[in-house]
From TrEMBL, chain A:
Protein name as catalogued: Protein BYPASS-related
One of the record's GO cellular component terms: membrane
Provenance organism: Gossypium davidsonii (Davidson's cotton)
Family: Belongs to the ROH1 family.
Subcellular location: Membrane
From TrEMBL, chain B:
An annotated Gene Ontology molecular function: phosphatidylinositol-4,5-bisphosphate binding
Superkingdom of the source species: Eukaryota
Naturally occurring in which organism (per UniProt): Gossypium davidsonii (Davidson's cotton)
Gene3D superfamilies given in the database record: Exocyst complex component Exo70
Family as reported in the entry's similarity comment: Belongs to the EXO70 family.
GO CC terms in record: exocyst
Protein name: Exocyst subunit Exo70 family protein
């Protein structure tokens, strides 16, 4: 089998693998709901696997000068540019995970407060304070300089006046800024820009896996931004220009549409991340805050029971976050470093392949 | 629990014993065959036990009353502050310690009330409830006090010794610097003057006297299981403080994309700022913050390192990000000095980083900064290579006018003269490439002049760079059509190189052997120039017939004319040539003068008969004077000179 045929086979195999992996992601087991912490782990794994295969096809045993000729002299630099944008998104998201960890910490207080028998007014007050902070942390507009949009019920803190701003300041400094005026939404937008599926002869050659990898990279970054609150997500694009007839893309497109639907629904209500655990936590926090608001010792037995059930669910979510969030940050860092390496590899190839400079 | 006195005298155990005894008595009382005596004893015992029980109850009742009293008292102490606008810790140490005592008391009461089994005692439940509500109120208050304390005292502790970033020398080295003389080039050195003095400084981020107060609040909150609230407040306040310090250092928040696209001038500034910020943040602020955390949270185990990490994270990730962006970037030679600064700073700090983040939770910090250090090392090696390649491949289309010192020579020599400052780092980094380079540098340093400094990796690499420069200069010299100019050009440039080496930190690394060799080289070119230019001219004045007394008039005329023409030709051409170095210019003039003037004088002297002839265009003095015009760099024609001489 000559190299041309081998190459076509490799490309086909690569795209089959891509299709399989995304199909798996589309039907996750019970515990790994779409956009949950463990699903995100799986997503990142898929990225790393695809990227490794992609690099192997493009670079291994290949004469570098081949990649310096058209259309690769345009396609490869474009890919590298997108990769750099992806790096900034990785950083933004990894730091967004910190704000989720903050929510986790606050939920821990709620759990400590309410996991008491018998439940007293003091416990309820304690929980309520933490719940208010939790809800405002989750609904914090990730724009710079916006102040707390919290449901400001009897904010018991405001006595000495000085503390509201301090707490708000607390939140502000929690959000890491990639750069002034940087926007994750715009970043994704610019990654999508100029993304054109190869046509004709190119569709069956090397340009095809390059396009595939571009799409995968954009999708992964997009999903991360949708799930994890990070800088300036307003205006996140919800549509990808991926032609439906591409075989390998079906599952990916399906996933993308599902997530995009969720996004559109939530966008109107104010933006916590679509992270499954975060969504569930928000619901629980809402009902618990209603409970603590209306609680007077010894409290309505039914309501207390309901609250206890909520708390126990909250405990479960806390557990999943506790297990999975820090590893998620590490995983994102792994992806970050892989993209850096990959970029260096491609730059090397371009350099070797181009005519020597006099 | 050890210190707490049980508020209720009766014990669980006592009640059980009494109850059990009562039960036995009752059971025995139902047996049929009881003697009268036994029955009497049982009745007595029954009455006795009942008395004990009621006693206990009433005592218990009395016990609860006592508890309630204590609770009421402590309630007053705590609630009274709720309506007050004043902060407890601002009011005075007595108020503070009273309050803490009160909170302690509440916790004690709670522990005691909990210590009892939960029978159906309504009073007990009620008291417990009141106490835990009171506790929550107190904890909330303590949280406020803590935040207030941290915010108030944070503002007062601006360390004054830290010089402002703008005072740091920040000259950008680029091609424009080639016009600087040695002195200003030295000033342009990017090395931070503070680098040696600025080790670790531990400052009081919070005044000493406040620490015990914070600690006392910590102790109470941790004891009451409100440690999470304490940590939240503490982390929030300290994080904000650290980030304010960081903001003052004016590190532009830059995305990786921004950094990769940035033009050199701004990038150089940012790299400088980074180097400085790293020293300040790690060397001063984080060391001090760690100490503060140790002081406040030292006794609470892993919470200490957790809080420290949370406080520091955002800031250090920002610094890490910039460093990584730099390490990723295109490795251009002009970045070398700044890269070396960054590398050296990080290499110094890495030990501190390892110490600050020694626990598990901080392992990723250590890893990432170690990775960054490696990345910077790779960047430096790559940039160095690119530098070498750039030097050899720097092409010219046209010959450099005037044959003076080429800008490339200036750039290279000025640039590399700053490297010795980074000698130890460069030696470390260039070590593995040493063997390849050493063989390329065909000037084995052996004998008494060879030393560690001339044979170290950096020295070898620098000599290989100057070697490349020489080869390139040779190529450039070929662009001149005039062979004499080729030699002037090479003489000028080689001389410049030698002067630079002699007059800078490069000297020990190039060694005397190299200097001698290169002196010889440019002197060779000097001689070649003279030969090419003047030999033929002087030849014209040669005595064809030694021994014969003098030439015929026509022969003399011919020779004179020939000499004039040749001389004027040289004059016309070579006045526009340049020998920038005054000493060299002087040397060449003297040596030329010796040859030419001497020959001319001899020639004229041999033919005294024709001395007054009009065909002698120039006197010996004329020739001498005219020679002074050579190599001034401004083209002249003889007419000009004549006019000038006449006036």
């Amino acid at each position: 089998m000559d190299t041309q045929e081998q190459e076509l086979e490799d490309i086909e195999l690569f795209q089959k693998h891509v299709s399989d992996r995304f199909t798996e992601l589309s039907s996750p087991p019970e515990d790994d709901a779409l956009l949950s912490v463990s699903w995100l782990h799986s997503l990142l794994d898929v990225f790393l696997c695809c990227e490794a295969e992609f690099e192997a096809i493009l670079i291994m045993d290949r004469d570098p000068s081949q990649l310096s000729k058209p259309p690769f002299d345009r396609l490869i630099p474009e890919f590298i540019e997108r990769a750099v944008k992806a790096l900034d998104i990785c950083n933004a998201v990894a730091n967004g995970v910190d704000s989720v960890r903050h929510c986790q910490k606050l939920s821990e207080i709620v759990i400590s407060a309410l996991d008491q028998n018998p439940l007293g007014d003091g416990h309820a007050k304690r929980a309520k304070k933490a719940l208010l902070m939790l809800l405002s942390a989750m609904n914090l507009d990730d724009k710079e300089g916006t102040h707390v949009k919290a449901t400001e019920r009897s904010w018991s803190f405001g006595r000495r006046g000085v503390n509201k701003e301090q707490i708000a300041g607390h939140f502000r400094s929690l959000s890491w800024q990639v750069a002034k005026n940087w926007s994750s939404a715009k970043q994704i937008q610019s990654m999508i820009y100029n993304l054109v599926a190869p046509r004709g002869a190119e569709a069956s050659g090397l340009p095809s896996p390059i396009y595939t990898m571009n799409v995968i990279m954009i999708f992964v970054m997009w999903a991360l931004v949708a799930a994890i609150p990070c800088q300036e997500r307003n205006g996140l694009p919800t549509h990808f220009p991926v032609p439906k007839q591409l075989n390998w893309a079906h599952s990916l497109i399906g996933l993308q549409e599902k997530i995009a639907d969720e996004w559109k629904k939530k966008e109107k209500k104010g933006m916590s991340g679509l992270l499954d655990e975060l969504q569930k936590m928000e619901k629980l926090a809402q009902s618990l805050i209603d409970f603590t608001d209306s609680f007077h010792f010894p409290g309505d037995a039914e309501k207390v029971k309901e609250a206890a059930a909520n708390v126990s669910e909250l405990k479960e979510i806390f557990g999943r976050m506790d297990q999975g969030l820090t590893p998620l940050q590490m995983h994102i860092r792994e992806v970050f470093h892989r993209i850096v390496r990959s970029r260096t590899e491609f730059l090397d190839v371009l350099e070797k392949g181009s005519a020597p400079v006099l | 629990m050890d210190e707490c006195q049980s508020a209720i005298p009766a014990h669980d155990g006592d009640l059980h014993v009494v109850a059990a005894a009562h039960h036995i008595v009752k059971a025995l009382g139902t047996t049929k065959n009881l003697s009268d005596d036994l029955r009497k004893i049982l009745i007595d015992l029954d009455a006795h036990l009942s008395l004990i029980t009621s006693n206990i109850d009433s005592k218990g009742g009395k016990g609860f009353v006592e508890v309630e009293e204590r609770l009421k008292r402590v309630e007053r102490k705590i609630v009274i502050w709720e309506s007050d606008r004043i902060m407890i810790w601002d009011s005075g140490p007595k108020e503070a310690s009273d309050y803490l005592e009160a909170v302690d008391e509440v916790q004690t009461l709670i522990d005691s009330l909990r210590g009892l089994s939960m029978n159906e005692n309504q009073k007990q439940k009620e008291l417990l409830h009141r106490a835990s509500s009171l506790l929550q109120m107190a904890m909330s208050r303590l949280e406020e006090e803590l935040i207030h304390m941290l915010v108030k005292h944070k503002q007062q502790s601006e360390p004054t010794y830290i010089p402002s970033p703008s005072s740091q020398r920040n000259v950008v080295y680029n091609e424009s610097v080639v016009s600087l003389d040695n002195e200003s080039a030295k000033e342009a050195s990017s090395k931070n003057s503070c680098s040696d003095e600025c080790g670790e400084y531990i400052v009081d981020l919070v005044p000493e006297h406040v620490i015990p107060d914070i600690k006392s609040i910590a102790k109470v909150m941790f004891a009451s299981d409100y440690s999470q609230e304490f940590c939240e407040a503490f982390i929030g306040a300290r994080k904000e403080a650290l980030e304010q310090h960081f903001d003052i250092l004016e590190n532009g928040k830059l995305s990786i994309e921004d950094v990769l696209k940035m033009e050199w001038c701004s990038l150089s500034t940012e790299m400088n700022k980074w180097t400085w910020s790293m020293k300040i943040i790690f060397g001063v602020y984080l060391m001090s913050e760690k100490r503060l955390c140790d002081q406040v949270l030292g006794e609470f185990g892993s919470v200490n390192s957790f809080c420290f990490l949370e406080i520091a994270k955002t800031t250090i990730l920002c610094l890490l990000n910039f460093g990584e962006a730099i390490a990723m970037g295109p490795q251009e030679p002009e970045k070398l000095l700044r890269l070396l600064d960054m590398y050296e700073t990080l290499a110094d700090l890495v030990i501190d980083i390892d110490a600050l983040f020694s626990e598990d939770g901080g392992s990723f910090v250590r890893l990432e900064f170690h990775k960054l250090l490696e990345g910077l090392a790779d960047s430096i090696k790559a940039a160095f290579n690119v530098f070498g390649v750039a030097v050899s491949s720097n092409g010219s289309l046209y010959p450099f006018p005037g044959g003076g010192v080429h800008p490339l020579s200036k750039y290279v020599m000025n640039y590399i003269s700053m490297f010795p400052e980074y000698c130890s780092t460069l030696n470390l980094l260039l070590e593995d490439q040493h063997s390849d380079v050493a063989s390329l540098v065909s000037e084995p340093q052996c004998g008494p002049t060879a030393s560690l400094s001339t044979s170290c990796p950096m020295a070898c690499h620098l000599r290989s760079i100057t070697s490349s420069l020489e080869s390139n200069l040779h190529k450039k010299s070929k662009l001149y059509k005039d062979e004499a100019l080729q030699h002037i050009f090479l003489m000028n440039n080689l001389h410049y190189m030698v002067q630079k080496v002699k007059g800078s930190e490069l000297r020990p690394f190039f060694g005397d052997e190299w200097i001698r060799k290169h002196n010889a080289k440019f002197q060779q070119h000097e001689m070649n120039y003279e030969r090419v230019t003047w030999s033929s001219v002087v030849l014209l004045l040669k005595d064809d017939n030694p021994g014969s007394s003098s030439l015929s008039k026509s022969a003399f005329k011919e020779k004179c004319k020939g000499f004039s023409v040749a001389f004027e030709e040289v004059y016309k051409n070579q006045t526009s040539w340049c020998i920038p170095d005054p000493q060299l210019r002087e040397d060449l003039r003297i040596s030329t003068s010796l040859k030419v003037v001497h020959a001319y004088r001899t020639f004229l002297g041999r033919n005294p008969a024709h001395v007054d002839d009009k065909c002698i265009k120039h006197t010996v003095e004329d020739v001498e004077k005219l020679l002074l015009d050579l190599f001034e760099g401004s083209p002249r024609s003889l007419r000009n000179s004549r006019r000038m001489m006449k006036t």
